[in-house]
Amino acid sequence: MRFFSDNAAAVCPEVMAALAAANSLDTAYDGDRWSQRLDTVFSELFETQVTALWVATGTAANALALAALCPPWGSVVCHRDAHIQNDECGAPEFYTHGAKLLLGDGKGAKLTPDIVHGLIDTIRNDVHQVQPAAISITNATEYGLVYTPDEVGALGSLARERGLGLHMDGARFANAIVRLGCSVADVTWKAGVDALSFGFAKNGGMSAEVLVFFGDKHRQTTLYRRKRAGHLLSKGRFMAAQVLAMLDNDVWLRNARAANDAATRLAAAAGDRLVLPVEANEVFLRVGADEARSLRDQGFDFYDWGVGEARLVTSWDSDHGAVDRLAAAIAAL
Amino acid sequence: MRFFSDNAAAVCPEVMAALAAANSLDTAYDGDRWSQRLDTVFSELFETQVTALWVATGTAANALALAALCPPWGSVVCHRDAHIQNDECGAPEFYTHGAKLLLGDGKGAKLTPDIVHGLIDTIRNDVHQVQPAAISITNATEYGLVYTPDEVGALGSLARERGLGLHMDGARFANAIVRLGCSVADVTWKAGVDALSFGFAKNGGMSAEVLVFFGDKHRQTTLYRRKRAGHLLSKGRFMAAQVLAMLDNDVWLRNARAANDAATRLAAAAGDRLVLPVEANEVFLRVGADEARSLRDQGFDFYDWGVGEARLVTSWDSDHGAVDRLAAAIAAL
Amino acid sequence: MRFFSDNAAAVCPEVMAALAAANSLDTAYDGDRWSQRLDTVFSELFETQVTALWVATGTAANALALAALCPPWGSVVCHRDAHIQNDECGAPEFYTHGAKLLLGDGKGAKLTPDIVHGLIDTIRNDVHQVQPAAISITNATEYGLVYTPDEVGALGSLARERGLGLHMDGARFANAIVRLGCSVADVTWKAGVDALSFGFAKNGGMSAEVLVFFGDKHRQTTLYRRKRAGHLLSKGRFMAAQVLAMLDNDVWLRNARAANDAATRLAAAAGDRLVLPVEANEVFLRVGADEARSLRDQGFDFYDWGVGEARLVTSWDSDHGAVDRLAAAIAAL
Amino acid sequence: MRFFSDNAAAVCPEVMAALAAANSLDTAYDGDRWSQRLDTVFSELFETQVTALWVATGTAANALALAALCPPWGSVVCHRDAHIQNDECGAPEFYTHGAKLLLGDGKGAKLTPDIVHGLIDTIRNDVHQVQPAAISITNATEYGLVYTPDEVGALGSLARERGLGLHMDGARFANAIVRLGCSVADVTWKAGVDALSFGFAKNGGMSAEVLVFFGDKHRQTTLYRRKRAGHLLSKGRFMAAQVLAMLDNDVWLRNARAANDAATRLAAAAGDRLVLPVEANEVFLRVGADEARSLRDQGFDFYDWGVGEARLVTSWDSDHGAVDRLAAAIAAL
Question: Where, if anywhere, are coiled coils annotated (chains A, B, C, D) (predicted)?
Fold first, then answer.
């Protein structure tokens, strides 16, 4: 019973069916009829004109987004616990050709305008110092919290005021939207976001994420960067088909809702053990070493998170019975 | 009736079945049981210990290989018509952090020791000049010719003698092996090859290629480079499963044989129109503009190749009837 | 008696005096009163508003210029014998983060519009191919020929038409100007040049070159790149002072004239042995191995240039007697 | 009366004389007789075989050193206030092709083994995380403190144990040595230092620093990197001559002693206002805004350092009278 990562989840049936349906002769790269629909479909979803490009990983989406927003001599403000800092082996530095990440603290991996000010206000505007160029936030965060449209908007205002780009790492964007109940526009471009890494793989996809730019300013250069990074797959139709299948009939929201609901059930059982509120599909628990062992002995698999904490991640396909058993086991600790 | 690229071909049924079979909960990234088998399976295939890493594109495989073999201040000798020079938007330069490609001429996109000597022998061994570090050849070449084990061996000897790495771009390696009838060992490491980009996507796969290093010297650094480039997919089991399915029962050879046979049938019809011998799955024809239009009017889709030439590419799933009709149409020109 | 490089020449007395005169307390980096005059002084010289930045080497000037004109996924057209290709260990690739150089042929290391067309017209405008972004020419060339304003203008027109930047490597710009007798404006921005590496070190300076951009479009980003490359010297006043001293009273022209005159005297002695016309301060001679040895035995130091040729370079301080003796020795061969 | 930077100081007479003495025809780049002596002279000084390369700036020396010690996917532990982090516009990231700096806190910009452990011990040894590769310390620090041989040795032991390189930014190395009274060997290679940026420019040089590697492991690659970065000056003899002149007769120590003595006199006057002990040539004072204004009104020039602090930097040529007047003015505040 695996609760260690939504990356370990299966691929949802609609995606598998879409792969089969796309398996006919078509044009290579992104000239096929599926890929060619992405801009339109995502523009409708976001209620504005967007550039929507598939890539195979969230790391590639994030790094391409940051390369568009930040020059080699710039810096990107992010949280100290951000995926781009801790889990991408320096992909942002590789793609930006050497930009810096400026690391902020903040509860639950969330940035606030105050934190950003604290990082950038002391930077002298001279050539000796790397200049701030962008802010990157993760929604839902690496700790399972969500940014509301207002919270994003406050960062968006600061970004505009200071001439910074705003990137949102949405590896779990669907989980955030389900929680927020807002439109996808509200929490992105309407709040000042310039680029969104829209995650599908953790949410039931196989190997496709979508990099969304609001507007087309960064389209042309990003197309070159994507190719140059080896991320223009030759049979791109299988990338686009995954994504389109998940947008059809709101499969992406259905999947995320299932994951969030499972996490909520675990949270209810956890009570005071919760390190943070559960707002998406991640549950952080205080557990002693013996307790963690006990849970593992009962067949539950998860990550230890530092000392005395455990991270449980639910997914679109989390087995109801397993979730119930885990909830009971937590309650019984 | 599409003959413009084997990238446009469908995915073969064994791969589709393998994707379905791999669709269960497992570990993320490359810790799953499919990915974990790659080294073993490829080591058996190549009769020596290899490092076998999946990546999503041939461009990524090539660029990672070259980054392993060539420092930023080095150069890679390749043919002027090589894919790494013409069709990867500078991926080798991106991954190597700015190495140069030294461009040789040679019939059918093939390098010879003489050509390599002509490029590197005049380079002074001082810090003012970028130093040669590797040779990259494509087998089968971009013009559908194959390098024999002896031909590769001659380049391998030169490489060893001069301290250069030897990389083989095997986007159509299967087609070359079918043609050569030799073991995969004969034309790679036994002939001095250090790294092979082993193509599967053009040959019936969906989105997986394998970067093979002979030995493990470059394993650790390449694992970092792969992650850093955003090429460590989160659900890597679907990458490995594709490849394993194609190695099982020699599906990869069966597929390539079908493609080669189709090309051979077209070649027989083409007679004097052939620009080059047909040794794999590409046919280059001399055709006038009117003739090209006539073929297109009959429903055949292909690339013009410079002035007065056309490129026809067959694939594992080239329709027999379509091939026969095209052969007849060519003969009737 | 050294004729192998103008890099080996001494520093002219005006520069030495200027270094002494600048040796007082002042502001660091480029905030000092010498550095602050550069834009003004060079704008007057060029009869237009320019950005003038000192750097310590021609390689840095060239690489910074190309980084401003060419993105990482772009290419720079240059001659196969260009210094940026052969003698800078890949600095352009380092500073541009991996652009390509496209190599043209042409007598005496000169490009023509036809040669440029031959290199760029076959490049498809798609993301698979590195797109041409700039042309770089050297004036005087690596073979001692000069581009006239008309010749530069023809390339400038092509550049404008195709949206390319135009860079001039002027390591021996002074020698070219002396030969041409035109204004510096005529052969640069009036002819379409965007950036000039204006050389001083070979012409009697110690360690300063000036990167000139016509206009200020690239000023801000280049200031960051220069610092980031470690080329913002802490005592920049000694850089600016060298250059200002050479512009004062046209010392730069006087020095170049002396070098050109010495080369002309050698050329007159060489007669049919000349490989190319002598238009600046380099003389390429056909000499047999025995003849070269004979010259060396007489105390003349120079480079062999391929097989059967020798390169003689004169400088601002070439000793008159030594030049006469060499001229006589050549005539006597 | 300038106390804002030792970069603003004049060039000492021995260096000026050496430049004049080197002003004769010689070989270009670093083939001249001055440059060729560097390895020997520095090996004697350090009592071990070293590689000694001139560069024009401390930024270049630091960045080249770090590029030798840290791969693109590695990180360098340094203090949050380190010059490499705050004052080099990302040069380390540029030269390393995108490594990270890990920022530690510590009084007076000094790292300790505990601080380093705190930064690296939580890094998982997997490909998702950038791996620590080096430690960089500054001696004397940016806050004018010195590391003793024992303190360096403790970091050196940790570095060896964890397979990290150890770099010392010695922009004010001379000031540290004067304070420590130890041999240069004691505080460098004998304490585990792999690379030293040995500063001369702040200490009376004009434009030369020396990058010292202990041993020759990094020589060859660094020669290529230096050239590729545009830091191989064509008239390198003027670089080497500066340095040799400062080593002759211990001019470098004499100069540093003068600077340190001046700082000590200011410190004595400052009493309780001192933010930190004065161990080299920098004095950090607590001063109110009115007090700072008063000092400036009396003609003293210095940097404000955050809120309520001022930085005073003395140099080899600090005027005795000016120092005395400033000391009196501080005492009178």
Answer: none
